Each structure stands twice: as structure tokens, then as C-alpha cells.
Amino acid sequence: MKKRVEKAIVIISVIAVIALFAFFLKSILVPFVKFEINNDVEGARELLRSKGVLGFLAVSLVEALQMVVVFIPAEFIQISSGLSYPFPIALLLCDLGVCLGATIIFILVRTFKYSTPAYEKNKVKIDKLSTRKGSDKSVILFLYFLFFMPLIPFGAICYYGSGTKLKYGKYILTVATGVIPSIITSNLMGAAGKAFIKNSIPIPLLILIIVLLAALLFFIIYLFLDKIYFKENEGTPDSVLYTAFCSVVRFLRRGRQKLNVNADLLSEAEAPYFMLANHESFYDFYYMMELDRDLRATLVANEYYTKKPVLRTIAKKIGVIPKKLFTRDIHTIGGIMSMTKKGYPVLVFPEGRMSPDGRINPIAEKSGGFYKKLGMDLVFVKITGAYLSKPKWRKRFYRSEINVSVVKVVKKDELPNYTDEELNELIYDTLSYDEPYDGGNVYKQKGKAEGLQNILYRCPDCGELYTTYGRKCEFGCTACGKVRTFNDRYVFDDGSKISDLYSRIAAIEREQADSTVLNTAVKVKIFGKDGKTRRQTGVCTFDRNEFRYESEQESFSIKTENIPALAFSCNEEFELYHNEELHYFYPVENRRQAARWGLLADIYAEARNEKR
Q1: Which residues make Cβ contacts (< 8 Å) with residue 455, sequence separation at least 6?
Q2: Averaged over 559-586, what is the pLDDT?
Q3: Are 530 and 505 found together in one domain?
Q4: Which of 45, 119, 314, 355 has the fewest CB atoms within 10 Å, i.e. the most exposed one?
Q5: Is 97:60 a contact under the CB 8 Å cutoff?
Q6: Cα–Cα distance for residue pair 497/504, rounded to 1 Å
Q7: Higher pLDDT, 300 or 200
Q8: Are residues 476 and 531 in the same domain?
Q9: Do residue 90 and residue 202 come from a single domain?
Q10: CA-based angle 256:260:262, to the nearest 5?
Q11: What integer pLDDT is reported at residue 121 of this predicted model?
């Protein structure tokens, strides 16, 4: 009997909605549009006057019934009313219709325990979003949150609200006010459409108005969520901006890769824990997010990304922990401890920089002792296939298959079994990789070698500096004439890989390291402790003993033994910290040498470690 009643309610509601739509379209909207097309303002006004209460009633009833049925979108009637009536009237009619529909739903749910299949489908989304339960205030805030969320129909929200213990007065007040931003936006879009029909505004301006109105709505939604609903979560991975940031990145990366995720072992870890991953590409943080959509991990990131104007605000609000690369940073330690006390996992890329050649970088900052002191589970995650998708030396992005897998979990009670050095070795060995064999992708692109000279800056055969080139799928040297060609597996025709040639270059540099003195004029960008950016020009020198910088404004030197690594961007700059200020050094001539400065720093560090 109950199912028959439910079916009857749905059928009657659908028929009523269709009939009202038909009436509204045939009797009001279509004639109104015709008058507007003919610029017959008096005719349009007369039409509205002639329909009187019936026109008003049509708008409110359609708005109410679409809520009961749930799956019929409200935007159509809201935009249509904005086309047909002055803005204040259109807003009032739509809001009255929403209140009427919400009241009908309240009676159906409270009296008849009624729900619709359309609501049950949306209930899954609502339950996932629910973080507040209990008091009336919590329920009201959550209802506001839902009204501001896109893609969740008003009717589904009202069915949800009616199923709570909220009294009718508070319920209907929440509904009446919660829908206003959306109704205003839709009505104004309709008003803009009316102006367009009357040829009052050109189509580019119409599009601009609609975009601005949509942006305004999202801004209002963001303010509400950020300042009221999730206010206590600001500065953590539970913030609204963290969710929005993840959603935007996920949208931008969608379809760019085939992402294979294996997170089975993650269930063995007890939160909060450290997630340690290798660093193949710029988007590794995104691949880590896809391990578990519900995972709320805070990211330890290069401080550089937290100093740019927009990124600085985002990083602060989503709980990113800034790290001064290859520098002892007590603020980073404090940030990690603060986040773990709140229960958030921490994501760390121990290499601290992206791979230059498709293999793991030397881990300059060995943190085994720190992990043992904090006493949390360690989750090891390996990313493969990402390096050749977008290596640091190539501008273009290639679609590829990327694998993200939890490969090992070390429980906190197992950590005392390792010495600091053994734990450091375990981290390095577990995260080691070697592209392209680890990735196994096929690359049919015709420009696979373009930009490769920016990392393979020296000929691996004749040893000449800056004579290499990457052209289409060929990598060659203008000095000795040697040419290698990539196959579709990103392996050269002689069987060598990028990492093999990089190793040959490193061997040449290693032999000459004691006598090598790098010297170059540079333009410098300095991120000061006061938050301001300074620019200078000067000269940098680097050898086995020290790194020196001299300019008219300042000069300093750092012993090479105090430089664990030198981060760099291919064909752009190399960077380091001095006096807690980040210096970006851009060579005036031949910026390809930036990769050489980075490699020499690794060779010097390698030699020091061998002596210990």
C-alpha cells in the first residue's frame, strides 16, 4: 500500500509539474519572449498584467513541485521568472515556491514517512558531506552548507532536513534564507537574458554578466563555508579550501593520466602517520591524494611555494608545512608536531626535489632519527611512470600510465629495532626506482628528446660541455657527432637510458671535481625574512671548498661541507638559503649550467659521505 501511495504521489506531482510548465511556457513565457524580440515593451507589460495571479501562481507552484519530485532542476523556473518579472517579484515568487515545496516535503516525511528514489540517490552524497550532528545549530549550519553546494537539488536537502529533529519554524526559516543566493543568481541571469533579448546588451556582455554572477555565488558560498561552517578547520587539511584545491587539481588532471592506485597496505597504518614517497614529477602530490579520496594529509613543501602571493594564502589555509630545502628548519619540525597532534598524517618527499634522470635522488637530509623520536607509523609509497610524463627538463606533458602503491608499512613499535642509519637506508632502498623500466609506458610522441640537453648538459661520449642537443627523438653532440634515438619505450637505440648517460656525465665531473671551479654572473631574486622580494646582480663561485656570492649590496660564503644539496630548475636557476633567506640565482649566460651546479653539489656530498 505504501509503495502505491508513493507511486501515486510521484505520478500526480510529475503530471502537475508538466501541466504547469506547459501553461507557463505557452501562456506566459513564449508570448513574452515574442514581445521582447519585437521590442514590444507595452505588449509584454500587458501580457503580465493580463495573467495576473495565474502567472505568479505558476512560478511558485512549479518551484514547489519540482522540489517534491527532486530530479527536476529549479534553475529553469528561476531563470524564466527572472525573464518574465521584475527582479524583486521574481525573487519573492521563487522563494515562496521553495517554502511551499519544503512544507509539503516536511508533511510527507513527518506524517507519511515518505521519500523518493531520487532523494535516496542524493542521500549518499549528503551523508558523505555530513560532519556535524546533534544540536539544532549543527543541523541548521549543515543545511546551509548543503544549499550552497552545487549539484544537490533543493528537494533532496529538504527531505534530509525533514528527517531530522528540527522543528518546523527553524526548518522553514533555514530553507527560506538558505536558497536565496542561488535564486538571486538565477533570477539575475534571467534578467540579463531579458536585456539581451531586447538587444539592450551584446552577447559578450551577457556572457560576462553570467560568469560574474556565478563567480559571485561561489564567492558567497566560500565565505560561508570558510568563515562559518568550517571556521575551526582553517589552517588544516579539513579546511574548505583544501577540498576546493583538491577538486580543482583533480579536474585539471582528469584524463591526463591513467592512474592505477594500490592502497591495500594503508589499512595497516595507524593515524597519524608519516607518508614517505619518491619524487618523480611536480604532480606527485596529486597522485598521493588519489591514494584515498578521504585521506586528509598535510604536505611538507618547498617554502618557495608558500611565498608567492596567491599560493601563500592557499598554503596557509590548507595546512601546508613550509620547508627550507636542505636546511635545518625548526619551524618545519614545529609544524609537523602540531599537525600530528591534531591527528593528521604528514606527507613527505624525502628527496626534497624532483628526479633529474629517472632515478631516486640522494637523500640529503636524513631524518631516520627524527621519525624514531616522533614514534609514528611510516607508510612507504612508490610512484612510477610519472617521471617521463613530465620530467623537469621537458616543457610538454605526455599522457602516461602512472602507478601509485603503498609498498611497505613500518609500525611505530618496530622503529626501535632500527638504528638511525639503518632506517635511512631502508627509506632510500624502499623508495628507489629507475625509469623507464619501472614505468613500462609506451611513448609515441615525436618530441621525446626536446629539452634533454638541459639535464644532459655535457656529452657523455666526448665530454665536451654544452655541445649536446635534443631534437625530436634524437639526442646528439655537435662536437663529436654522436647521435642517439629514442624508441617508444624512451630507451635509446643503443640500449642506454637517460640515467645511464647522466651517470657517465657524473663520472666525468667526479674525476675533475677537485680542480673544478664554477663561476658565473647571475641575476638574483631574494625572498627576504621580512616577506619582501629583492633583486640583485652579482657573481657566484663554487668549488670543493666553498660557495661564494658577491654583489654591490652583499657578499657571503658558505662552506661546501654545509651544502647537502643544491636545488635547481633546468635551464633556469639554482638556489640555496643564506641567513634564512631564499636566493634564486639565474645565470646571465648559458642557463643550462644550472644542472651542473646541482650535480657538482651532489658529487661533493657523496665524497663527504664516503669518508664518514
Answers
A1: 356, 357, 391, 392, 393, 498, 502, 570, 595
A2: 94
A3: no
A4: 45
A5: yes
A6: 11
A7: 300
A8: no
A9: yes
A10: 150
A11: 55
Distances (CA, A) of 342 to 126, 266, 477: 25, 19, 55
The one-letter amino acid code at 418 reads Y
With b for 16 or more beta-carbon neighbours within 10 A and e for fewer, the 188-209 pattern comes to bbbbbbbbbbbeebeeeebeeb
DSSP per residue, 191-223? HHHHHHHTTSS-HHHHHHHHHHHHHHHHHHHHH
Where helices occur in 476-571 by DSSP H, the ranges are: 498-512
Q: Is there a single domain that holds both residue 541 and residue 398?
A: no
Cell representation of residue 532: 619582501
Please indicate, yes or no, if residue 10 is contained in any of the structural domains: yes
586 C-beta neighbours (distance < 10 Å), count:
18
Domain stops at, among 470, 493, 512: 512
Average pLDDT over residues 369-375: 92
Q: Which of 497, 512, 527 is the last residue of a domain?
A: 512
- Residue listed under C-alpha cell 638574483: 524
Q: Assign 132 a pLDDT band (cuts: 50, 70, 90).
A: very low
Q: What nine digits make up the cell of 533?
A: 622580494
My answer on whether 39 and 154 are in the same domain is: yes
Mean local confidence (pLDDT), 487-509: 95
Highest averaged pLDDT of the listed ranges 66-80, 242-256, 305-319, 508-522: 508-522
pLDDT of residue 169: 87
Averaged pLDDT for residues 296-309: 82
Q: Is residue 530 part of a domain?
A: yes
> How many domains would you assign to the chain?
4
Q: What share of the chain is helix, strand, coil (3-state, %, to 5)?
A: 50, 15, 30
C-beta of residue 18 within 8 angstroms of C-beta of residue 70: no
Q: Are residues 136 and 57 in the same domain?
A: yes
Q: How far apart are CA 542 and CA 496, in angstroms?
A: 31
Strands of 314-399, DSSP E = 321-323, 346-348, 378-384
Q: How many CB atoms lie within 10 A of CB 238?
A: 18
- 526-570 pLDDT, tens digit per residue, is 988 887 889 999 999 999 999 999 999 999 999 999 999 999 999
Amino acid occupying residue 541? T
Residue 27's domain comprises 2-222
